[in-house]
Design brief:
The complex is a heterodimer of chains A (about 280) and B (about 300). By secondary structure, chain A is an all-alpha fold. Chain A has a domain of about 190 residues: MetI-like fold (Orthogonal Bundle), CATH 1.10.3720.10. Chain A is about 80% helix and about 0% strand. A seven-stranded mixed beta sheet of chain B has the order 6-7-8-3-9-10-11, with helices on both faces. Classes of the chains: A mainly alpha (about 280), B alpha/beta (about 300).
Chain lengths: ~280, ~300
Amino acid sequence: MNFSLRFRPAVVSIALFAAFLGVWHLATRSTATTTTMSPEYAKLMGLTATQGKSAMPGPLDVGAKLWEHLKQPFYDKGPNDKGLGIQLGYSIGRVGLGYLLAVIVAIPLGFLIGMSPLISKALDPFIQVLKPISPLAWMPLALYTIKDSSISAIFVIFICSVWPMLLNTAFGVAAVRKEWINVARTLEVGTIRRAFTVILPAAAPTILTGMRISIGIAWLVIVAAEMLVGGTGIGYFVWNEWNNLSITNVIIAILLIGIVGMLLDQILARFTRLVTFPE
Amino acid sequence: MSGKFVSIEGIAKRYSSAGGATTIFENLWLSMARGEFACVIGHSGCGKTTVLNILAGLDEASEGAVIVDGQAISGTSLDRAVIFQSHALLPWRTVLGNVSYAVSSKWRSWDRARVRAHAQSFIDLVGLTGSEHKRPSELSGCMKQRVGIARALSITPKMMLMDEPFSALDALTRGTLQDEVRRICLETGQTAFMITHDVDEAIYLADKIFLMTNGPGAVLAEIVENPLPRDRGRTDLHRHPLYYALRNHIVDFLVTRSKTFAVGTPDHDPRNVPIVHIGKPGLAIASDAKPEAPRETSRPGQARA
């Protein structure tokens, strides 16, 4: 029962994936219709015209290219030709830095908002206005004030990941059960110790949920931000390969963005499970 | 027993609302001797929990003062341990962790081993040996409340405050825990203040039973001295000749007199609440109740109202 419940969905998943690859392969295979043209002109027209090859790469093309990338993920042949590992590394680094800054700001501030109704009410209008702003709208302002495209990208990550964390921390802290606070009060536990021994563990699952939402948003935003700032990163890579008209590389980048996003989410999910307590 | 260990002096609790202040109770006077077990009985909304919270320091009285062991209290204190109705265990800590948290809060300088040993001895006392490393979610309601009791006792308080500690439990486990609390309080000479809805629980546990009228504007109507011997047992409690007189007196109060008390007794002096001695001539209202008399014949409250 247990085995079959784990086994059967896996079989269905693999079957679906195989079917997808099959359809993809059939849809993009070479059609035999070719026109005869002068060799000079044929060279200009490319494989699509001469051999009837589809303009959209098939799974085999993508697989071969992916294997090429995986064999050599960290090569660096100048600013326009870097390994995918390096590009992803830049993106993850920016997300990590911006996200870390957001954690440093959002969690203490969220604690303050959650613990003090006064500060909560006072800051509420600012948060309500700032929260719905698209993080990319900050980009020009960041570029103008910071004057560094890479740091601007980090700032954009910071600003987009700060809100879910801030609001979840504030909510989690404010929603700590009164009776747990009362236990700490009857034990004459000081404010600092109470914050760390009662409020933090009680609010941790909610805080981690906010952090998980934030990392997802940060990873969504970094691709767009890097398309704008350029230079390095997986977002830049996507745009660069679009300019090179290498759809194969664009597909590979899309796949890798998905996988890295999933991994980041799983890491946070693991942490969330660690701090979640059954009641 | 020595004098007044706990003295509640003229406290009031008011909540201000749009249409003026609502008085839950006012001018409430009450005292307890050291080592005494007192139960408060009254209907919901009479402010029992508020009195307990004020005593615990979790709530503040609008007027008046509370004096414990010769000192007016302000705020919470490790001298007054609270056993919460909902046990209020920290679910991310184990049984040992929950008790240790209290122990290390009281004795900050103790090292880990000492805290653990002290906590363990109180876990043993409530009969939870072997469950130290379980989390509250793995425990039954009864065991959770035992942890709550161990946590309260572990800080060796001067008094214990219990807000309907057993009301969430089934009758059988409630009985077991009542035995446990009674044994521990007698052994350690604890002063205990307990809120309950359960008349039998009050009769079994209390030395003194405080009867409160309905709120708002609740008053402490009577103090009933429990005539049953101190070494009473659960099984033969109801055979005591004064048991039914006592029980009927309390039930009558709850059923009828708690509503009509304020109207029926205009000259009630809250500073000098009548003490009812069941079964002693001249003092008690219910003194004429015969032990074997069926409940219906004894309605001291009705006769009065």
